[in-house]
Amino acid sequence: MSMDFAPPKYAQVMTAIQQRIRDGEYAPGTMLPSETQLVREFGVGRTTVVRALQTLAMQGWIEREHGRGSFVKGRPEAPADRVRPGLTATEHGETAESIVSVERVPAPRHIAHLLGVDERTPVIARQRLTKQGERVSAVETFWFPLEVALGTDLDKPDPLRHGVRQHLQAVKHLRFDHVTERLAARKPTKEEADILGSTSPVLGVLATVHDAAGSVLFALSLALPGELHELEDVYSVR
Amino acid sequence: MSMDFAPPKYAQVMTAIQQRIRDGEYAPGTMLPSETQLVREFGVGRTTVVRALQTLAMQGWIEREHGRGSFVKGRPEAPADRVRPGLTATEHGETAESIVSVERVPAPRHIAHLLGVDERTPVIARQRLTKQGERVSAVETFWFPLEVALGTDLDKPDPLRHGVRQHLQAVKHLRFDHVTERLAARKPTKEEADILGSTSPVLGVLATVHDAAGSVLFALSLALPGELHELEDVYSVR
DNA sequence: CTCGGTTGCTTGTCCGGACGAGCGGCGAGG
DNA sequence: CCTCGCCGCTCGTCCGGACAAGCAACCGAG
């Protein structure tokens, strides 16, 4: 009788209590059975029950009051984090027709500023597009410092099958730590307008990707046409 | 000898270890002393040391690997949450000259949809502007269902000194629970363009404010000119 | 040299017991 | 009637011990 991979007992107790809250057996606002009662019911030690209750409290299922009891708060809502256009772009694979151009160019001022280099320092500009059906739905430009692109395929016009993030991780063991995004409405540049086939306003996203030390690995700039992109964000204000 | 309010021992152990990480005594990547060693050093039981280590791991200070040891990750960074234009607008106070108009109007389609009512249902439209110096920097329109505005000053053109959120909380005991924001680039409407004195692209924010039951309390629509507003967001991708 | 078992260190989980402290009801005394 | 102290219930914290399991290094057999 080998129950392979039986979850730890405190997790079993947690799951049981969560189920009862979902089922309405333990209604919000009501008091849970006392620790002693739960010990008897589940046939485990109090340490185990307490661990389960503490974890449930930390996850927002219940509230514990010293000397009174544990009280049901309800199903905790996941903080439904928002869309991260900057990160998403680094994870998308490429196809032959999605590549617009891959060039070595002098860094424009705003990009040089983001990368922390002098204006007109040579950098690799890798421009791609994404499609929804036949329509071009976004223009993405990556800006890599030469020392980052060195030894990678980022400066070659061949499509990266698994995206920029995987490529940098696999080839140069670079790990992303955090991303800074700056978001504003603007008119598309002439070049973007040509590719998009429209001059209507775009959501401009300027992102920098950093390593654990906080250094900028590279920058990217997205043009998301307003008619096609809506970023949704739900947040708690309790 | 009364040590008033001595913190629990596991918290003392946590604080000591945090201090050593901050001081560099325990450098990132290195292994912490084993639980047994910490038990000896601090003169507490292993349960206490384990509680301290588990809590530190949950807060992101260390990582624990079964059978290997506990390893320092570093000072955990607060997840620097992003700007919430929708919420901010509900918290700003008003002045006499910031009010553009307060009218009872039939709900336009997209607003009716957000509020969950039929098109052209009468609602209160409260339009305001914000300034940076002399320049109008944003146009904010609140859309209140009549039953929400009932008994409040929201349908009166007098400035709300402490903002919409405080007013609804104080007068009708309505508590905000969460906000849903939809964000896109668009052209300003004719009306917004007149007020802003510009037709350049704006960041359009459509937000709904919900109570704990998930019902929509009201909606608001912001027009933030792209040249003046940049939303910044930093997030971890580890 | 290579392979596989043994051994020792580490964390993961669990138990049963212990004492303290917050809270609320109840009854005795004012 | 009100007040105050006692008591029982609850959670908060802590201990020492126990066994399982992951991992790495060592060592002998082949």
From TrEMBL, chains A, B:
SUPFAM superfamilies given in the database record: Chorismate lyase-like, Winged helix' DNA-binding domain
Keyword Transcription regulation: yes
Superkingdom, natural source: Bacteria
PROSITE patterns from the UniProt entry: HTH_GNTR
The HTH gntR-type domain, residue ranges: 7-75
Pfam families listed in its UniProt record: GntR (PF00392), UTRA (PF07702)
SMART domains in UniProt: HTH_GNTR, UTRA
CDD domains: WHTH_GntR
Molecular-function GO term, any one: DNA-binding transcription factor activity
GO annotation, biological process: negative regulation of DNA-templated transcription
InterPro entries named in the record: Bact_HTH_transcr_reg (IPR050679), Chorismate_lyase_/UTRA_dom_sf (IPR028978), Tscrpt_reg_HTH_GntR (IPR000524), UTRA (IPR011663), WH-like_DNA-bd_sf (IPR036388), WH_DNA-bd_sf (IPR036390)
Sorted UniProt keywords: DNA-binding, Transcription, Transcription regulation
Protein name: GntR family transcriptional regulator
The organism of origin for this protein: Sphaerimonospora thailandensis
